[in-house]
Amino acid sequence: MIRIAIVEDDVKYQQQLTEYLRRFEEEKEEILTIETYSDGDEIVKNYQSNYDVILMDIQMNFMDGMSAAEEIRYLDAEVIIIFITNSTQYAIKGYEVNALDYILKPISYFQFSERLSRAVDRINRKKTHYLTINIKGGVKRLEVSDIYYVESQGHNLLFKTQKEEFVTAGTMKELEKELGSYHFFRAHKGYLINLEHVEGMSNNCAVVRGEKLLVSRNKKKPFMEALTKYWGEVIQ
């Protein structure tokens, strides 16, 4: 579930944004909760960190969106702010409060959906995902983002994590399918690398938390493309 606040003093735009959110919810199969505010001071008053995304109009009567965003950012460093504005000159100031993006009025659904998709992608990346593996004497639940890489060792897999190493029986092929959606890339027949922890390339090796892992010649180009794409998503 994604919690969204609309802060907009124009009822027409309030209704349009709500309709767009419901359309997005249906198309993307996301569950959204929506609350609306008619001015910046309404959302700032007694603000709690209850929202994942705030759609914030910039020009409002009592408290403008930029002032409201400054107040909110002081209390909540994580909420995603997307400004709604008539002019790009206001939107540029949004970077001062770490706004993700802006939407220009009049609002088209394509423009809206594109911006909101970026926000949802960022939210999903922050969610905690776990992988349960069998280890000697029991099982271990690993946080996926803590895994640096997985190394194939015959019929076993070695998981190199932030704190320690774990060995389990299994095949790289099965694991690659399971972790593929979490930004892991098979850079070599012996390594499945978490792109989140790649610091760069050195010759034919990926530098993963200071450790050099060989990238196969035929995998180098797709690996670099995947890494560049991932870094672009993180920067956005």
Describe this structure in words.
With 236 residues, the protein is an alpha/beta fold. The protein folds into two domains: 2-126, Response regulator (Rossmann fold); 132-235, LytTr DNA-binding domain (OB fold (Dihydrolipoamide Acetyltransferase, E2P)), CATH 2.40.50. It contains seven helices and 15 strands. It has helices at residues 11-28, 40-44, 65-75, 88-93, 109-126, 172-179, 217-235; strands at residues 2-7, 32-37, 53-57, 80-85, 101-104, 130-135, 138-143, 147-153, 156-161, 165-169, 184-188, 191-194, 198-202, 205-208, 211-214. The strands form four sheets. A five-stranded parallel sheet has the order 2-1-3-4-5, sandwiched between helices. It has a five-stranded antiparallel sheet with strand order 10-9-8-12-11. Strands 13-14-15 form a three-stranded antiparallel sheet, with no helix packed on it. Helix 1 links the parallel strand 1 and strand 2 (32-37). The longest helix is centred in the last third of the chain and has 19 residues, at 217-235. It is elongated, with a radius of gyration of 22 Å. The model has no long low-confidence stretch (mean pLDDT 89).
